[in-house]
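Minimal example, chain plus pyridoxal-5'-phosphate.
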Amino acid sequence: MTHDKRTLAVHAGTRRSQYSEMSEAIFMTQGFVYDTAQSAEVRFEQAGDDEFIYARYGNPTVRMFEERIASLEGAEDGFAAASGMAAVHGALAALLRAGDHIVAARALFGSCLYVLEEVLIHFGVNVTFIDGLDLAAWKGAITSDTKLVFFESISNPTLEVIDIKAVSTLAHSCGATVVVDNVFSTPIYSKAIELGADLVIYSATKHIDGQGRGLGGVILGSRKIIRGAIEPFMKHTGGAMSPFNAWMMLKSLETLDLRVREQTKTALGLAKSLALRGDLERVIYPFLPSHPQFDLTNRQMGAGGTVLTIDVGSKARAFAMMNALEIMLISNNLGDAKSIVAHPATTTHQRLPQDQKDLLGITSGLLRLSIGLESEKDLLEDLNFALDVAFTSV
Ligand SMILES: *Cc1c(COP(=O)(O)O)cnc(C)c1O
């Protein structure tokens, strides 16, 4: 019997101890004991799925989180990491060798860009950056020497939607592995594996925790890649998730579907209302018919996600608006129950030179809005008030 995501999010991966506890236990232990010297020897020779030897390799609470999120994603297996970046770096470093070629979409989260441009290049990996929306560019850049392609399924902060199926088909025709950073889609709207992704990565820090408490990440994919390539690299290099954070993320998965769908509904409502104001230079939301990849978004996700982006025309106006907000908080996280506003040009993307900002459409008036669980009416009042203040004062 196959179950819906709502059901899997509550039950999948649960392991009960001899006490039959209702709520999943936190196994706050780094080690495990063996009855005899012989059983320790056997465990080290062939630790099975239910057997643990050291928390850097695996832990029962961490394993519950991995199994629950893998089942939500429709992946065979997963490996949890200390943060989203430990997952991105771990997946890429585990799969790549000096001399390998990779093709990546240019619009990337700043730290992903650092891993590709500053870390992997120093280990002899050749990286080609392209415009992820341009299928001809993917086709031109991927060759029989390409080992891997990497992209964010929805880019930050301009919300460009990349065609997972088309890029995966091109990559697979050349034997390349497809790695997708899927944060903005969330496991709720993701069909990435079905569409051809070999590995799907989440920063659990975002929607999965969704309450701003802790860092986490996860790499999802086939059992062969996860246990064959990812696990050996991760367990020996130390990017493991702590059992406490795994417990927090595991319990958060129970409400992920409800939170993400509600936040998405509010984000769509706000995007429509803000577009009607008529004074904003841009309102970008993947599920507005005006979005250039609206049809693709509909096929690939069936929803627009919890983030929308607006352009108010200038930095001065953007700052005036942010400072006039009462409910929405100024921060750089996203996916949280609390609505958050960020000015990418001066924070998350400050490091980028101006020509890169221009190329990525990160204008001085751009604001990224991460929509939380507050009421849509209150958020719209907050936004309209702050925008009115900004447009009258600047
Ligand atoms: C936040 C984020 C990351 C990094 O995750 P951390 O948990 O902060 O390490 C990577 N990719 C994307 C798209 C993100 O939004």
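The radius of gyration is 22 Å. The pocket of pyridoxal-5'-phosphate is lined by residues 83-85, 88, 109, 111-112, 152, 156, 181, 183, 203, 205-206, 215, 217 (CB under 6 Å).
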